[in-house]
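Table 4 source record.
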Amino acid sequence: MKIKVNRNILWATLFTDFLVKTGVKHACISPGSRSTPLTFAIASEKKIKSFPVVDERTSGFLALGIAKATNSPVVIVTTSGTATAELYPAIIEAYQSRVPLIICTADRPAYLRNTGSNQTINQNNIYKNHIRLFAELPLPFPDKINLKILLTSAYEAIITSILLNKGPVHLNFQFEKPFEPDSITDTVDESLLEFADSFSESLLSGKTLTIVNRKSEIKVRSIDLITIGAGLFNKRFIQLLSKLSAKLNIPIFADANSGLRFSRKEIPNLISNYEALVRRKDLKKFFLPGTVIHFGRNLTSQNLEDFIVQTKAKRIVVNEHGDRFDSTKKAKIIKSQPESFIEELINKKLEKSSSDILNYLRDFNNKVESVKDKIFENSLNEVNVILQLLELIPEDSNLFIGNSLPVRDLDFYAPIHNKKINVFQNRGTSGIDGIISTAIGVALASGKLTYLVIGDLSFYYDLNALLLAKQFAIPIKIILINNNGGRIFNYLPISKQKEIFQKYFVTPISIDFKKISESFGLSYELIKSLNEYKKLIVNSNKSNSCLILEVRTDSLFTKSLKEKFWNATKKILK
């Protein structure tokens, strides 16, 4: 039987069918003419939930958030030209943090490059420094040879993105006009579609690929410290980690961004206030680890990183991709599933670490907590905004923490909570762009209450994302800490250079966030007191709409409280 087709639509439809077979469920699509075949095919597919997003930069970060929340690949579709470049910040973040994205850029035919043709740039491997796989597809042609190329490229991209080298992948689709489904270009035999379906099945029924864990061949007598950075850690990891730590008296220094401080699972020997410890220059007199095991990304605390270097401890970094989360380049990197690695350690005959040291660290941790409460709890300061939020949000909420000061304040001051909180952040490159878009993606895909803590500069940088909250009715709660500029620079030596510091580093923007919020049709409240803040957080937990809470803070006042706190903790360590 013969059927009439538009070859571009057929091409894009068979590609979409393959996405569905692999389990892809989400796509973010920005408008454009050249991408019409992809947009039509994907948006018409009911098994893929598609989100139209006007600007590509926002679209990239929205997809990033959806992929973070689901740990599954998300498709992004753009038209040609500079639209493709707008995705780059989100792609870099996805690359650095190994988040699976399938980037589908539409392009004019390659023969038009360098001819001055409208909206034509060189899209050939345009993201080459930050992409896990690139393939440029040929112009669509309805025969078996070309369909094999299309489907094989799609298979390789997806299997790379989710398994072989997890992260973003890029497929560049060339299209010639016409693009619309009712513009017939070819008559094909129906058996060609049957061939495509059969070939797809053969690709997917191949040998199942898994990451092979090799024996670590680790040779240590004992483990003195486990450190954990940001990452995805499942229940089994937490169970095994707890078992290993309890068996061998190993203290665990868990970055707040790892989420382990809020796992609801009791993890013995978890120390949250290690920042206060490692700020002491004489800590080595009390605690001198010989071997340190690290899971997850790099630590937020530079002081902890420096302490480990100073102790000259043997450092072992473990993750499933063999990534070097070690700026010293001296650590031993082991490519292994963390759970398998811990099981191997549990079965080894290792010496127990000192219970005296462990008890000392735990006692110190508790004493610091009481000092912390006394200093921060009675005022509306930047630290207390986060501490109160942790207390007041419901079980199993999402907390997305912005970069710069908020992420550090969470890590330095967040205590252990017997409440599950799912922590998200963009720490791949730690940029301030795309934070709201990513958080909305997390909220949208997870369907859970989501709270975003963000500074005023990061908020300003991603204003376009506010349209998403309105467009998709996302009930995200945005806690906007407004200290009018980049106040993290107050903690750097450059702050002494008064002439240029305020203008070129702090860069106050003095924006009326109330008017901005209202222009997007979003609810807004200006917080005037600590009690009002607590009340509005509790009330917002029951609300099904987006709410922006602006908290204007005095960063120098918060800085003075922090200095008072660090000085007080020094007196505890004796």
